[in-house]
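Anyone able to model this chain together with NDP?
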Amino acid sequence: MARVIVIGAGGVASVTVHKIVQNADVFTDLLIATRTRDKADRLRDKLQGLGVRITTAAVDADEVEQLVALFEDFGPDVVINLALPYQDLSIMEACLAYGVDYVDTANYEPLDTAKFEYSWQWAYRERFEQAGLTALLGSGFDPGVTGVFAAYAQKHHFDSIRQIDILDCNAGDHGYPFATNFNPEINIREVTAPGSYYENGAFHEVPAMSVKRSYNFPQIGTRDMYLLHHEELESLAINIRGVKKIRFWMTFGESYLTHLRCLQNVGMTSIEPILYEGREIVPIQFLRAVLPDPASLGPRTKGKTNIGCIFQGKKDNKKKTCYLYNVCDHQEAYREVGSQAVSYTTGVPAMIGARLLVTGVWRMPGVRNIEEFDPDPFMAELMTQGLPWVEDFNPTLVD
Ligand code: NDP
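re: yes, here you go
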């Protein structure tokens, strides 16, 4: 039935590829196209013969012409972008030029500015609409499942949602003093940026890591979490009717924060190029090269993640609260697909988004954030594809 291209062969792509192979009832042919072809070849060698025909290719996803040539050669029904946020626009351009639906998990960021927002991708809305194509933005966990949770809460539990707190807890221990669970460059750019929250129609900025709370996470225990800016705040503020306040919280351990502060203080997290022995290098890219590869953390990481949203609002004129969350075990994820839970919780929703598009369950031409679609089929898929969710109508609130 469906032919799919996955661009990238890193931590998240590896999970999505495993899940595509598990969904051979829908996906028949898979092309893994990435910068370093060896990584794609290793995935193909591991998963070939399990029901989905897998081929690989080398591609520079910054180059629209290379992408279009690849699409013309393979004939995809959907393209899943699991390279880096820098490649979003070139891949969207190529999807328009060839005429194929697009899925990603992170919004566009220019390489030279640590700024992430949807404006660049939303600017493509009319062109996708006119072409009758769907670009599904943010089909990971956060953004991704968090948006689906919001759409589900809005559809089934509330007449109006006043406040959303998104809580992202990773209680995994990989045994290294400092490592990131997904691409280090993207991760460090995200957590060193100023925090922000949405309230009464405006975004309010706070210094990075300056707002802290403790929360007792189900199946994990109490952890410190910090207010961050996160991309889904921007789309949820528009798509969840009447919402007044949205905050995003992520847990960090003391060791992580101490190392990060030190790296920042010595300039290692900077994105400004410097001259080193006659050659220009970008400190954060050099740092990425010396840190453990997130894909290598799988066998070492023990513990769980808990990511979810607490909604507060009204139903039938009465106050109501609902906490929707998923708990994912690092070791169970590793046993199933050879990756830790952070890649797992992102890679599974990317496959589900693509599955719903190619089967026609989701179809809405234009550039769409995930909460714009009917959440029910996605919520059903989460239950059977490895990310079961829990509803709690009496959760502890975040003050
Ligand atoms: P990795 O660094 O592990 O993998 C990125 C892959 O993209 C690598 O295979 C890399 O190739 C490839 N790549 C990079 N640049 C290019 C290029 N120009 N052309 C072709 N391929 C390229 O990252 P992750 O797997 O950890 O993350 C993937 C994406 O998922 C990121 O955008 C990240 O922000 C997002 N993410 C989203 C989350 C969510 O919940 N929504 C959570 C976590 C991550 P090479 O091997 O040569 O470096």
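The first helix runs from residue 11 to 22.
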